[in-house]
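Exam revision sheet. Question 4 asks you to relate a sequence to its structure. Input first:
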Amino acid sequence: MALTQEKSKDINFVLKNLLAGGVAGMCSKTTVAPLDRMKILLQAHQTHYKHLGVFSGLINIVKKESFIALYKGNGAQMIRIFPYAATQFTAFEFYKRYFSKLIGPTLAIQHMDKFFAGAGAGLTAVLLTYPLDTIRARLAFQVTGEHKYTGILHTAATILKEEGGIRALYRGFLPTLMGMAPYAGLSFYCFEVIKYACMKYIPNYTCNNLETNTGGLVLIVPAKLFCGGLAGAIAQTFSYPLDVTRRRMQLAMMDSETRRFGIGMWSTLKLIYTENGITKGLYRGMSINYLRAIPMVAVSFATYEMMKQTLNLDTGMKIS
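Answer key, structure tokens:
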């Protein structure tokens, strides 16, 4: 009987975390969908937008295509992001428990269990959902009047048929994996560390008491947004060049002039650097990335924490 109750408790924990993570991901991505599309257009030097800035580009999307075009590719994004975010947040909770026991309370590497758990969670999630990211990028890169793909299924079928099967859906997967480990690891690590600092040193300004929480304290919404936003900014700074490489590889086969970017990760990195340098190549679109990453990660973590609180999952932290 006790074993059955424990199993039921574990299943309940997983389902609640999946729901909380999925909703958090959908809210965060929808919040920044226009900036997400603009970033893709800038990263891959889309012909109609490559000479424009962030805000002038957004204005031109509305003028040239329509307001709804700001959300082009967001349908595929939602289909991808729910399982992605659900898997990532749930995997993080499990990996955090495992690494916490493995590493122990060693002061020199305090909180590093969060970094390894975040990295592992990010890798797990991207492995399961990467083809949908490729499809979403293709749809977002299209300009009204010059469509090659008509929807999610048509995009997938065309890539499979014309570009070499299932392998084509995973083009750019290696730089994604290499970028995801530091990005997801730093995102979760920084969020947990900043959250810990807020709770320990300025709880009167950042926290409310919550008797049902094992930590006794829970961050208020502005503090959650601040912690998430700062964590996102730090993580993106380190991993961004590999994000650019991933995008160039994903979109390489859409135009004969850009096919050279689809050969391999290292050759693509070299090409980007050789042709455009660091600021206009490897870090192209970084300004818009800060504009989207900071609110995206902030909303993601804040929504996840609020969902956990609503679903009676522990959102506190032991402060010592």
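Marking note for examiners. The chain has 13 helices and two strands.
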